[in-house]
């Protein structure tokens, strides 16, 4: 029983590294990693995948909370309005849905689509008069304001 918990913990740590890479390519990367971990430690692939999926959800919630706090601070400092904050949050959800639709494309096509999404997002920021020069104050904080997914 302790072996399973230890392996689950190791898997979670490895998953952290895998999930921190690009969201778009994480699924195919983590699947091969899931296979390798399951094979290496004699675990069921489904159980390892479940650990990856749970960790991915936890990391998403944490990123969302940090992003919300970041936007709240930007509003408090007068860098953006509450209305702009709400627009950003709404746009973030739209972009996540668009990204979800890209996951079955081949890697080259994904790259092209993501490049276009980034450009469209930058244009959307300009159209909505949202400053492009917002910068997080904490080192290592992902620049969600540029590409919030």
Walk me through what this model shows.
This protein has helices at residues 2-20, 23-41, 45-76, 82-102, 107-127. The protein has 149 residues and is mainly alpha-helical. It has one domain (2-127). Helix 1 (2-20) runs antiparallel to helix 2 (23-41). The longest helix has 32 residues, at 45-76. The radius of gyration is 18 Å and the shape is flat. Residues 5-9 and 15-26 have low confidence and may be disordered.
Layout of helices and strands, plus pairs?
Elements: H1 2-20, H2 23-41, H3 45-76, H4 82-102, H5 107-127
Helix pairs in contact: 1-2, 1-3, 2-3
Keywords:
single chain; 149 residues; mainly alpha; 75% helix; flat
Summarize the structure.
With 149 residues, the chain is mostly helical.
Main pleated sheet? none
| Uncertain regions spanning at least 5 consecutive residues | 5-9, 15-26
Give the N-to-C terminal Cα separation.
37 Å
The number of helical runs is: 5
Q: What is the H/E string?
A: HHHHH
Bin the helical content.
over 70%
The Cα radius of gyration reads 18 Å
Averaged pLDDT, please? Answer: 76
**What proportion strand?**
under 5%
The tally of structural domains comes to 1
- Report the structural category: mainly alpha
